[in-house]
């Protein structure tokens, strides 16, 4: 084990040169994988574990390129300029494929026509959580408080226009209540101020709060996925609390440039699904608080259509725009 | 388990052959990253991140942490020898480190920054070991009102960080705040001064700004003025490394103060080593009997900030380990390394994973000792860089700045920003506008705006929130006292000069 | 007027104009809000106004001081180094690491007349090797050494 680890370390440090192309026609040399965010975030993490497993199983070579900026729009825009041979792929997700197209005044691509959907990878629900000292014991109490004092119950989110913020906007509309929205530059600070009791509750993705739920410094009141989450079996979903049909999740998916040949899409989809079957990869993703997805390219294409339409409504209803 | 039992367990874990090896890999890479201007620790740690999936979590964390605090040791090297900061946290070391090198005391400066780094690191570790849970709880009670008052105190304390015209210093602070505010507004999503350029929507990177106004500007000025041999070869011997008794006497208090300031800022999520180094420098200059020595090679001007940024590196593990709250993206990545292995960071970590927690803490000692062993002999090699003719050196330094900046986000935009800020830096130097206040305004301005707006939102528009909350009120009182004291001493100095 | 500190007068006036432009742009393009509920335009407007004031102070101070000599800018190093960075930024995503370093070094070497072409060639070889060893091998970064992407 130790020896193996050392070897891998040595390999990763020394052998980053492009591998020789495999026997098949695809791929021709290494595949460039665009991560439209800076290194170190959730999308970067998912991309690295996925491509590492695919490289191991298929003998392919991936070159990760972090191309962050403008809420993930810049990296995806770069994909639209790539050749249509599947040598350049990217990790799209809820914000840059479903939310930003409506949120941003100018966006350099059409999320529905400029990309070829390949496979859904994973998703994570949003969690509504309060500090352990909070007087709110359940979700109903929080909603009731907001109904009695409109705009007084404070909610921290990772920022204006994030999935967490918009999900709560949709919820507020549906429940006909109003929270006091306190946006933060990122999930870490939003969560910290909720633990410290400076805001009444936090709405953030499950991975960003999971360790605090486990350690008991935060209490989860509800999750936004349709069903309960395996990591939080005790926490009800918003939908089951009487808000029928309510669902919000932050998903990640592999996409290629438009008009990718069908056989390449099939090869890639099979490779992603094979990687997602791997036990170790599944635990890695689940430990983080995400749900492993997978499925066919067609299923993802339909899902993308639906999500695009749903979030467009949410953004319009919230009145948020980025000029 | 008792405290000493824990320390023993930690030492045992940290001293295993594998862990010492990974600790060495970490601090070696860290030193390398620190010496190279431009490239950041975050980029390097995320490259190595996938490797940690296959490692024992303790070893993985020991290695990543080694990279993190190792950069601060290496970061001052280029500041001192070339006037080009290795990382933004070392930019302030340029102010006195480079004059020391010009006076032929480059080796002394490198040696003293290593000593200061070790002292700062050690004090940081002691504080981390003894008080982590208490400090972590205290940090949680700091809300936006407290942060705003603290930043205001920092800004007031740090005015006068540079020499020359006070008006020019203020102009630079304002320009820094303006540049820091470019990008997407957290509250409304409005893109401020982005002019439709998507890259500007994420704001200007501190690395690009620091590399431009300090690094590139320095290269441009020096190529035009440095001719021929710059240093006597006797300056480069190992004997030249030995600090004088005066150096030591002047340094130990600033090192302790710097370590204290660094430990304080490190433990607060969201602040960090850069801010700590700037404040530590400013406080030394303010409290010095003869502030005019600063900027001309004062030893306190390098030892205080270097102790501060190293202490901050260590205490930034306090919120990370004791609460599971990452104070910076780099710390978030380290937490990620734990979570992948199914370990929950948070208050339970110390009791549930004592060998991991104490092993990591003890590895910091080993890492700091390794860094001293690694850095002291390296001084001899680094100072020889000065013997390399400048016309061969500057293209190399420029290449590292460009490539380092580019590698962070594969963004040519950031490289172009370095170019623009390089031109700005040359203009500033020619017109005697100081660069340090620009960086300070850039770091502090957006945080102050953010916390002020949030405090106002949370208090429903009551300004009283800043004085009703005890911590915030105390900080504001100190700020007011500082302003009063500076005004009085300035008036007294003026009266004395007119009466003469 | 010409025997006053003309440099401070001009930079001061330039800063005053710059500050006013920022303040006006911020107040006309972004919501100002109130101090209690600040909009995105409030801070930039304040900063612009203060900068304008400080610029005026600087110009005023300059008018009271006698003229000081200003060392001239050496244009050759300035243009060569800024040009070097520009060529690097243009070249690296299109032709890869090695050609980008080569062109950058060639352009920057114009900054110093002492550099001969042979020395520059040796320097390029050294820098390309150093970049490959440090960035690709030691740090495992994925910047292609040579590529063709237009």
UniProtKB/TrEMBL annotation, chain A:
Keywords, in A-Z order: Signal
SUPFAM superfamilies documented for this protein: Periplasmic binding protein-like II
Keyword Signal: yes
Gene3D superfamilies attached to this UniProt entry: Bordetella uptake gene, domain 1, Periplasmic binding protein-like II
Protein name: Tripartite tricarboxylate transporter substrate binding protein
Family affiliation: Belongs to the UPF0065 (bug) family.
Secretion signal span: 1-23
CDD domains: PBP2_Bug_TTT (cd07012)
Domain of life: Bacteria
UniProtKB/TrEMBL annotation, chain B:
Sequence intervals crossing the membrane: 20-49, 61-82, 107-140, 152-183, 203-221, 258-283, 323-344, 356-382, 388-408, 415-444, 471-491
Xref: Pfam families: TctA
Keywords annotated in UniProt: Membrane, Transmembrane, Transmembrane helix
RNA-binding recorded as keyword: no
InterPro entries named among the record's database cross-references: DUF112_TM
Entry keyword annotation includes Transmembrane helix: yes
DUF112 domain location: 21-440
PANTHER family hit by this protein: TRICARBOXYLIC TRANSPORT PROTEIN
Protein name as catalogued: Tripartite tricarboxylate transporter permease
Species this protein is from: Vreelandella malpeensis
Automatic annotation (TrEMBL), chain C:
Membrane-spanning segments: 6-26, 38-59, 79-107, 119-139
One Pfam family from the record: TctB
Domain DUF1468 span(s) in chain numbering: 11-144
Keyword field contains Iron: no
Keyword Transmembrane attributed: yes
InterPro entries: DUF1468 (IPR009936)
The entry's keywords: Membrane, Transmembrane, Transmembrane helix
Protein name: Tripartite tricarboxylate transporter TctB family protein
Organism classification: Bacteria, Pseudomonadati, Pseudomonadota, Gammaproteobacteria, Oceanospirillales
């Amino acid at each position: 084990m130790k020896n193996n680890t050392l070897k891998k370390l040595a390999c990763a440090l020394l052998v980053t040169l492009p591998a020789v192309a495999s026997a098949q026609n695809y791929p021709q040399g290494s595949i460039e994988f665009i991560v439209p965010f800076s290194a170190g975030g959730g999308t970067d993490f998912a991309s690295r574990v996925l491509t590492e497993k695919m490289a191991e199983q298929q003998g392919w070579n991936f070159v990760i390129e972090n191309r962050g900026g403008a809420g993930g729009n810049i990296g995806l825009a770069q994909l639209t300029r790539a050749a249509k041979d599947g040598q350049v792929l990217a990790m799209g997700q809820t914000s840059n494929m479903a939310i930003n197209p409506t949120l941003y005044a100018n966006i350099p691509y059409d999320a529905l026509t400029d990309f070829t959907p390949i496979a859904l990878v994973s998703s994570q629900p949003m969690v509504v959580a309060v500090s352990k000292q909070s007087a709110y014991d359940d979700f109903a109490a929080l909603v009731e408080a907001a109904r009695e004092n409109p705009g007084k119950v404070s909610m921290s989110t990772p920022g204006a226009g994030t999935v967490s913020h918009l999900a709560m906007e949709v919820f507020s509309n549906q429940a006909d209540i109003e929270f006091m929205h306190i946006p933060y530059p990122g999930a870490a600070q939003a969560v910290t101020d909720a633990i410290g009791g400076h805001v009444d509750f936090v709405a953030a993705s499950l991975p960003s709060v999971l360790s605090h739920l486990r350690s008991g410094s935060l209490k989860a009141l509800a999750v936004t996925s349709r069903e309960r989450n395996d990591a939080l079996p005790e926490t009800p979903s918003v939908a089951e609390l009487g808000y029928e049909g309510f669902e919000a999740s932050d998903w990640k998916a592999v996409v290629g440039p438009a008009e990718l040949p069908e056989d390449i899409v099939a090869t890639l989809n099979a490779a992603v699904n094979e990687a997602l079957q791997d036990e170790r990869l599944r635990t890695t993703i689940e430990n983080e608080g995400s749900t492993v997805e997978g499925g066919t390219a067609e299923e993802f294409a339909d899902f993308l259509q639906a999500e695009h339409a749903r979030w467009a409504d949410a953004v319009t209803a919230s009145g948020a725009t980025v000029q | 388990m008792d405290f000493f039992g824990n320390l023993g367990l930690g030492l045992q874990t940290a001293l295993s052959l594998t862990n010492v090896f990974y600790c060495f890999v970490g601090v070696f890479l860290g030193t390398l990253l620190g010496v190279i201007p431009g490239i950041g620790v975050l980029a390097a740690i995320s490259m190595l991140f996938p490797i940690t999936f296959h490692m024992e979590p303790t070893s993985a964390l020991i290695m990543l942490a080694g990279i993190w605090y190792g950069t601060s040791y290496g970061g001052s090297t280029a500041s001192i020898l070339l006037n080009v900061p290795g990382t933004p946290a070392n930019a302030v070391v340029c102010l006195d480190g480079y004059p020391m090198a010009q006076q032929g005391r480059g080796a002394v400066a490198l040696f003293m920054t290593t000593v200061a780094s070790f002292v700062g690191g050690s004090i940081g570790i002691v504080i981390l070991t003894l008080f982590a849970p208490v400090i972590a709880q205290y940090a949680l009670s700091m809300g936006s009102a407290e942060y705003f008052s603290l930043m205001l105190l920092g800004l007031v304390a740090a005015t006068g960080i540079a020499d020359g015209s006070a008006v020019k210093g203020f102009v630079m602070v304002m320009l820094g705040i303006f540049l820091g505010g470019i990008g997407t507004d957290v509250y409304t999503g409005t893109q401020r001064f982005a002019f439709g350029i998507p890259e500007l929507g994420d704001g200007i990177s501190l690395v690009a700004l620091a590399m431009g106004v300090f690094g590139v500007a320095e290269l441009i000025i020096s190529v035009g003025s440095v001719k021929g041999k710059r240093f006597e070869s006797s300056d480069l011997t190992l004997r030249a490394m030995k600090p004088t008794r005066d150096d030591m006497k002047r340094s130990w208090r600033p090192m302790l103060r710097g370590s204290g300031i660094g430990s304080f800022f490190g433990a607060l999520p969201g602040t960090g080593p850069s801010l700590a180094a700037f404040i530590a420098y400013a406080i030394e200059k303010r409290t010095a009997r003869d502030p005019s020595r600063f900027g001309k090679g004062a030893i306190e001007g390098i030892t205080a900030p270097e102790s501060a940024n190293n202490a901050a590196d260590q205490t930034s593990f306090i919120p990370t380990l004791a609460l599971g709250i990452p104070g910076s993206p780099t710390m978030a990545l380290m937490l990620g390394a734990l979570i992948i292995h199914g370990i929950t960071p948070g208050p339970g970590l110390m009791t549930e994973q004592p060998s991991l927690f104490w092993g990591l803490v003890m590895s910091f000692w080993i890492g700091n000792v390794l860094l001293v062993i690694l850095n002291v002999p390296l001084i001899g090699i680094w100072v020889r860089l000065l013997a390399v003719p400048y016309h061969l050196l500057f293209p190399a330094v420029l290449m590292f700045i460009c490539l380092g900046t580019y590698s962070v986000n594969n963004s040519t935009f950031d490289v172009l920003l370095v170019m623009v800020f390089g031109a700005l830096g040359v203009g500033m130097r020619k017109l005697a506008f100081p660069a340090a206040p620009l960086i300070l305004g850039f770091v502090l301005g957006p945080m102050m705006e953010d916390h002020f707006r949030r405090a106002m939102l949370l208090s429903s528009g009551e300004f009283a929130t800043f004085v009703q909350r005890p911590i915030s009120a105390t900080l504001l009182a100190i700020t007011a006292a500082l302003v009063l004291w500076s005004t009085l001493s300035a008036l007294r100095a003026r009266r004395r000069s007119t009466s003469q | 007027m010409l025997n006053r500190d003309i440099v401070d007068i001009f930079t001061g006036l330039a800063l005053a104009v710059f500050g006013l432009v920022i303040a006006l742009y911020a107040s006309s393009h972004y919501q100002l809000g109130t101090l209690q509920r600040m909009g995105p335009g409030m801070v930039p407007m304040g900063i612009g106004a203060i900068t304008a004031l400080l610029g005026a102070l600087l110009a005023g101070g300059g008018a009271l001081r006698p003229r000081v000599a200003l060392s001239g800018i050496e244009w050759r190093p300035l243009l060569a180094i800024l040009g070097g960075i520009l060529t690097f930024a243009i070249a690296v995503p299109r032709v890869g690491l090695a050609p980008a370093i080569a062109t950058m070094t060639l352009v920057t070497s114009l900054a110093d007349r002492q550099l001969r072409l042979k020395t520059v060639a040796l320097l390029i070889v050294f820098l390309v090797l150093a970049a490959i060893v440090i960035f690709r091998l030691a740090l495992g970064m994925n910047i292609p050494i040579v590529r063709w992407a237009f």
